[in-house]
Amino acid sequence: MLINPPLSLYVHLPWCVRKCPYCDFNSHALKGDLPEADYAAALLHDLEQDLPRVQGRNLQSVFFGGGTPSLFRPETIAHILEETRQRLPFIDDAEITLEANPGTVERGRFAAYKAAGVTRLSIGVQSFNAHHLQVLGRIHSADEAAHAAEEAHAAGLDNFNLDLMYGLPKQTLDESLADVTRAITLAPTHLSHYQLALEPNTLFHAHPPILPDDDVIWQMQQACQALLCNHGFQQYEISAYARAGQRCNHNLNYWRFGDYLGIGAGAHSKLSDLRQSRITRLWKVKQPAAYLRAAGTPGGIGAITEVAAADRIFEFMLNRLRLYEGFSASDFESVTGLAFAWVQPVLEQTQALKFMQMTDGHWQPTLTGYTYLNDLQACFLPEASVATAPQSTSI
């Protein structure tokens, strides 16, 4: 009997103090007062409408993302969590993460978030270099970032992530290593280290800054990776490093092609009913004002689409190949609802290209595959793989 994959909840809080020039997320600079109570009520109306889609399932994690969730008072976060628990059961050790900007952290705030039910923080540092922080449009200083980490420890929220970026405008190799070194001294349990990308619909895309060349960026990636590993951080995903037992369960669920329910302006959901061989995606209207008016009504849903079998293959590989743990045939079948025969011919082709390897029944990218991950993932695009798909669409 098919069992649906684990379920997570994503709560989108879309406002920031200021929009960063590299950010392509659905975030909006706050103008005027934060409509905190109204937005919390809208989130719960949104959740109520979605409950029939997830009835009988337990939440393994909750993630408050943004935007800048730390603009919201701990009392509001506590209210949202309490009301959610009354509607959906949480597993006993559910991971509850809140994103925070160091520039919005007041003394004692993290302790109040912990009392509200938050078990994990993700602190958006990006850099400890004053010049790079200014270029990135960040509202905090290096000292404020360090104070945020100290506040987390003082609150007993020792399980926290620091976000860092590399390949910043005119950044040197030594500067990227200095950022990672400073982060390690703050004793996080998790570190996200990812390359700056010039995404469409951002200020940086419209007015590109001067970035380091590809060779320097490669050196940054390799040197920082080695530094982190030498200090006890295990790389378990392309941009994620964790101490033993401290991997982010919420993001792991995404990368393993698990299910997630999204509430809030622009939030996306991916939900399975594998007994019916169906996977659907839905998303909510993006603009906060429109969301506030329509949340909990059909007008609050931007669209609902069913994920075709060939698309499931690509989406599985797009996510799962980012992990270093590999996957088995049963891993693929259990979350896609498809027979492994759908994907095996393409895997064998990528194995022949030295992009993939298979050891003890587990498939995993080779070093070359990880180096050229975008090319490897493209091998599983529907137009590349559909010709080899068998007739049966489910196991």
Give a verbal description of the structure.
This protein has 395 residues and is α/β, with parallel strands linked by helices. It is built from 16 helices and 16 strands. The protein folds into two domains: 247 residues, Alpha-Beta Barrel (TIM Barrel); 80 residues, Arc Repressor Mutant, subunit A (Orthogonal Bundle). A nine-stranded mixed sheet has the order 9-10-8-7-6-5-4-1-11, with helices on both faces. Strands 12-13-14 form a three-stranded antiparallel sheet, with no helix packed on it. Helix 1 packs parallel to helix 2, helix 2 runs parallel beside helix 3 and helix 6 runs parallel beside helix 8. The radius of gyration is 21 Å and the shape is globular. It starts with 6 loop residues before the first strand and ends in a 10-residue tail after the last helix.
In a nutshell, what does this entry contain?
This protein is α/β, with parallel strands linked by helices. The chain has 16 helices and 16 strands. The chain has 2 domains: 247 residues, Aldolase class I (TIM Barrel), CATH 3.20.20.70; 80 residues, Arc Repressor Mutant, subunit A (Orthogonal Bundle), CATH 1.10.10.
Low-confidence stretches: 385-395
CATH superfamily of the largest domain: Aldolase class I
Strand content: 15-25%
Helical content band: 25-40%
Give me the CATH architecture of the largest domain, please: Alpha-Beta Barrel
Q: Which structural class do you get from the secondary structure elements?
A: alpha/beta
Discrete helix count: 16
Widest β-sheet, arrangement of strands: 9-10-8-7-6-5-4-1-11
- By CATH reckoning, the class of the largest domain would read Alpha Beta
